[in-house]
Design goal:
This protein is α/β, with parallel strands linked by helices and about 375 residues long. The protein is built from 14 helices and 13 strands.
Length: about 375
């Protein structure tokens, strides 16, 4: 197998575009993996620039019905469509992104003798924690997989617990990464004390808890400024809450930005604020911020400190006052911010997407052989 291309079938049951961290990750990952031929299954519309990482991109035609009483019938139809593709493509291995979601179930039920590597992303684990039927689906995919990949030990442990520790020996941790070569750092080191220019980027939903950052600004001793970049169902509520707290001039909202534009802007800020309060599979944006030299004020969740190393300042998840204290301390200590910035750059070097790609390819070869 080492003397020819490794033929991998994978996919995510979403529009084939850089619309989320998972979609950006897989595009980076398969573009960085050496000596492979990748067929990716996705949904229309297709971002023509984004799909360049894959040798073939096939759009699924089965009408998507991810919830409700039609779910079983939907999975049956999707399984029929995917089965025909597996038979046609003859992959050496299947990478099932998201444990237990519809496309992973379809892969599981059509793989035959083709080995499966299941790859967890976080939302799949969250739904399995809330629903017995989702846990059953996760267990089915895990049971059919030769290996189960998680990006952190914390997420691997949650999967192990949800599957009643039946597949512990199949779990392996491969940290995610980013294309480090494209990151740039501000030419200006931190200078002086005083208000910080803060940035938060991500989906604006309940778990990401952007409200913690907004409400923290009303409790700080210094008039820090926060820029929120992203979209989501809580955008309007967050804007209204900022006005209620008298923060109209200190909280600015920008729409979701393509990564190229986000990376261009990151060096203009002093600190990145990470506010997720429940589960974060990995948090690629943490590494992105660090790769641009930004210290991170982070919600102290399982696994996050392992990712950030000593290059961040923790606070209690979901607690605006705890975050306010952390921000004021950073604002008063320019020397500490400088040390955190240097530590961030060093820590980010651990997470190159080329390393992630090489490790996943090596695991795939071991599974096949």
């Amino acid at each position: 197998m080492t003397d020819k291309l490794l033929n991998i079938l994978t996919g995510i049951n979403r529009s084939a575009a850089p619309s989320s961290g998972s979609m950006i990750l897989v595009n980076d990952l398969y573009g960085a993996m050496p000596e492979i031929h990748t067929t990716f299954l996705g949904r229309a519309p297709v971002d023509q620039a984004w799909k360049a990482a894959f040798d073939q991109l096939i759009t699924l035609s089965t009408t998507k019905r991810p919830h409700g009483p039609d779910f079983d019938a939907y999975v049956d139809e999707l399984t029929h469509e995917v089965g025909a593709l597996v038979e046609k493509i003859h992959p050496n291995a299947i990478h099932a992104q998201y444990l237990g979601l519809a496309l992973s179930l379809a892969f599981t039920r059509t793989a035959g003798n083709t080995p499966i590597i299941a790859i967890a992303h976080g939302p799949d684990v969250m739904v399995a924690e809330r629903s017995a039927s989702e846990r059953e689906a996760m267990t089915e995919v895990a049971g059919a997989s030769a290996a189960i990949v998680a990006p952190t030990c914390a997420l691997a442990d949650r999967i192990d617990r949800l599957t009643e520790r039946r597949f512990t020996d199949r779990l392996t941790v491969i940290p995610w990464g980013i294309p480090l070569r494209d990151a740039r750092v501000s030419d200006q080191p931190p200078t002086g004390t005083g208000p910080l220019s803060l940035v938060h980027a991500g989906r604006l939903d309940d778990n990401k808890s952007t409200i913690t950052a907004v409400e923290a600004l009303a409790l700080t001793d210094q008039p820090h400024h926060l820029t929120v970049i992203g979209k989501g169902p809580l955008r309007e509520y967050l804007e209204q809450r900022a006005i209620e707290l008298g923060l109209r001039d200190r909280v600015h909202f920008d729409p979701f930005l393509p990564r190229t534009e986000l990376w261009r802007r990151l060096p203009d800020f002093d600190t990145f604020v990470f506010t997720t309060r429940d589960l974060e599979a990995f948090g690629l944006v943490l590494v992105e911020a660090q790769a641009h030299g930004l210290p991170v004020a982070y919600a102290d969740l399982p696994g996050v400190k392992d990712i950030l190393g000593s290059a961040g300042v923790p606070y209690t998840p979901g607690d605006p006052r705890s975050l306010a204290v952390a921000l004021d301390e950073m604002g008063r200590d320019v020397h500490r911010r400088g040390a955190l910035s240097n530590a961030a750059l060093i820590n980010a070097r651990r997470y190159d997407i080329a390393t992630t790609g090489r490790q996943l390819r090596e695991l795939t070869l071991r599974v096949i052989s």
